[in-house]
């Protein structure tokens, strides 16, 4: 009762189909941010993992099947950046979610605005570590090492900039250099290793590019960490583990086509088609997925690239 002649009522309804894109560095965390809340509110979800870390969602898909989650509630699509471009004009899609880079978030925001899609787009971040006169040296150095070198710095939580007041600058800088020299580089799966490799050769080139840009602006390079050397034993172990991780992992065969509208879990009038097998992450990056006007199914693209879609 709002007033004598006015009664208010709140009705909560599912909005429909939502789509999401996850970054390579947080495949599990971003899944937890998007999918549980979406399906808990009665929506369905189309999720595109990063091409560089797709395996977690494949395992989650198996779990969804094991618990008998209704088919079509969660849909997993592997593909490159062309995939989200097909979501915006699709009238069945209610909104788009992203955790990724700032340029990608800006592009997606423009497309969502153009087609009137709801959006939750989390772009890149820069974190400053601010050090004042009363900072505890050992505590700061420990936090500095974990923040800057943890996960090889490949996370939005990484400390990108350290800002110190002049009174302590020289002393703390020397401590930072000493601690950085002691960072042990190797296989991040092993005990005693502080920092593992970057996710790709391209990522390594980008980091080195930032160093070159800094030098071009007359910045002083106090410690050059480019091209660290690992022992022969460490290199052989990394190669063995890399071969194991990039082995053949088949993509599951989907069921029949699904009606993606909220509350509608129906079957399309066509037979299911098998997904293309995944031989390696490099091959996976070349896949393309088409979200058709008909209920979502798996098809072989007319181009040489193969389609890979998966529905729980």
In words, what does this structure look like?
The structure is a single chain. By secondary structure, this protein is α/β, with parallel strands linked by helices. 33% of the residues lie in helices and 13% in strands. The protein is built from nine helices and eight strands. It has a six-stranded mixed sheet, sandwiched between helices. Helix 5 packs across helix 6. The protein is globular.
Q: Looking across the biggest beta sheet, what order are the strands in?
A: 5-4-1-2-3-8
Question: What is the number of E strands?
Answer: 8
What is the CATH homologous superfamily assignment of the domain at 17-124 and 248-311? Aldehyde Dehydrogenase, Chain A, domain 1
Radius of gyration: 24 Å
Can you identify the CATH class of the domain at 17-124 and 248-311?
Answer: Alpha Beta
Low-pLDDT sequence parts: 246-312
Question: What's the order of the H and E elements?
Answer: EHEHEHEHEEHEHHHHE
- Please give the alpha-carbon distance between the first and last residues: 44 Å
* CATH-derived architecture of the domain at 17-124 and 248-311: 3-Layer(aba) Sandwich
| CATH fold description of the domain at 17-124 and 248-311 | Aldehyde Dehydrogenase, Chain A, domain 1
Structural class: alpha/beta
Measured as a percent range, the helix fraction is: 25-40%
